[in-house]
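Table S2 (text version). Query chain:
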Amino acid sequence: MPAGRWQCSVTIETGRGTGPLKPGQPADAQAAAFGAKSCGDLRVRRKMVRSVPCVRRTRAPRKLDGRSLPDTAMSFATATAAPLFPVASLDRIDDGISAVRGEIELQLRMRHAGQRALRLRYELVGASGAPVVLVAGGISAHRHLAANSAYAEKGWAEGLVGVGRALDPAQRRLLGFDFVGADGELDAPIDTTDQADAIAALLDALHIEQLHGFVGYSYGALVGLQLAIRHPARLHKLIAVSGAHRPHPYASAWRALQRRAVALGQLQCAESHGLALARQFAMLSYRTPEEFGERFDAPPEVVNGRVRVAAEDYLDAAGAQYVARTRVNAYLRLSESIDLHRVDPAAVSVPTLVVAVEGDRLVPLSDLVALVEGLGQRGSLRVLRSPYGHDAFLKETDRIDAILATALRLPGETA
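Corresponding structure-token output:
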């Protein structure tokens, strides 16, 4: 290979088209499982792409927050994952604060699916030279944490990121990423070990030796526990909110029924309806009876000859919003990933703060007490009381911020 060239390609979106579902895609797989014919006439959106060679430039690499980041690719190899190239766009938000949004391609040896070529998208926002904190949420979360002047769209962690917060881009570099499988392209079992190994590859690609902190909520907490076990040198401290060392059987049963709702929708060639119903079931498991009693204590109405209860508008809206932004296969595979998760707390060697929510029906307090007991002297526990249950980390932002401020404080920093 000529000097200065890397074996990689950049994919550029040139348009969109439609095409029938191919054999092996989710609708066919689910239909076959029920002994039915596949929805062969169902049409899906797809990207039309072209590829161009990726050439290593000879000029000096850019400086990103005090470290060098190559313009195209770097060589990196491990038995687990090998990133082929980072593609990034650098935007200056303010003096000393930058925003980088990009992606790497990597070969990942997955626990249940063998070697796979994957694309991992990330966003890095913050002050030059500041400590890096990776923030990961539930299976619906993504790389964009909060709106900024470079990327103005609303993020999933708006209430937790901002001036004066523990996650202040002026004081920390905040790294977000799209989970493996979040694009819906990977139709294979995904383990939290796969997510952890992908993060390690991303950190290498970005020349980040160690994270000051990993803040994981829900599924993100499960991934953080795996990272702490498999790559302990890559993070200084883990904050695991509403995520345990194993799924509770009650929660797994909830998710299994949600996945069946999607399968039934696929049998009717209406998988979006199945996904909306699954999301509505999920909302009941995320929140608490106390919240519903306070918000929806109203008499039912008769509409077009059918009885409609007060919470149905809320549930319909939640389902529609989720379907608009989530691919069915991404939901199914990441939901399964939660149920595949298992770690031995004693194997975690990184200082870990566990945050539990009393009344969380998906991740009960008793499971998080067991996690902390297994962590031994490396673990500590904070308990919140909230009517929002599993969603408390999204709703109780001031209380979560106070916990993070203490946990992520650097030596010499004041409150």
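Notes on Table S2: The longest helix spans residues 249-267. Confidence is low (pLDDT under 50) at residues 1-38, 40-82.
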